Amino acid sequence: MATAHTASSQKRHSFHLGVTGGIGSGKSTFAALLARHGAAHVDADALSRATTAAGGSAIAAIRAQFGDDFIDAGGALDRERMRALVFAEPLARNRLQAIIHPLVGEAIARATAQAEHSGKRLIALDLPLLTESSHWPARLDAVLVVDCQESTQIERVRVRSGLQPQAVEAIMAAQSSRAVRCMAADWVVYNDGLSLQQLEALAAQVATSLGA
């Protein structure tokens, strides 16, 4: 394990493991499997979705910034319309992130503090944008990257979400490359051709090695 991340673990009782990977890599599945083996799972994507659900903390600011057309009939963010806008206009992505990211950061901090207070020894922070941000390295004790071939990512997302390959490729292009993610990793789990049982066995090994 790389030593650059480990100093912060001496200041607290829990081990903070950043789990990341590109879209369709299986990183959220792996983080959830860690939770089966004693870890706390702090899911940044789920917390982000909560801010843009009906009544979410980001809705008023999104309405003010982008207009009523980007809020659906149920009062939630119109994800399809917003996805089209941010891929067409990079500045729109920045405006959206400026609203959502601080709220998600606060939610992550609260969830992490709750896990620590409950006595969890391993906290798996499921962070899709870990390597895109300079915020996280000093706050984590180690980084685990779930990796797979780009063709596997595209097929998984197509089956899961019904997105066309071109749409998935656009999302992937906005994320860190596989090489950048792997360079930041203390562990890499290569999730191509693994069964769910094999992936869970790897998660159990990681959880046990970190004292969950």
From TrEMBL:
GO terms for molecular function: kinase activity. Pathway: Cofactor biosynthesis; coenzyme A biosynthesis; CoA from (R)-pantothenate: step 5/5. Its main location: cytoplasm. It is an enzyme of class 2 (transferase). It comes from the Bacteria. It is found in: Cytoplasm. NCBIfam families: dephospho-CoA kinase (TIGR00152). PANTHER family: BIFUNCTIONAL COENZYME A SYNTHASE-RELATED, DEPHOSPHO-COA KINASE-RELATED. Belongs to the CoaE family. This is Dephospho-CoA kinase. It comes from Comamonas faecalis. The lineage of its organism: Bacteria, Pseudomonadati, Pseudomonadota, Betaproteobacteria, Burkholderiales.
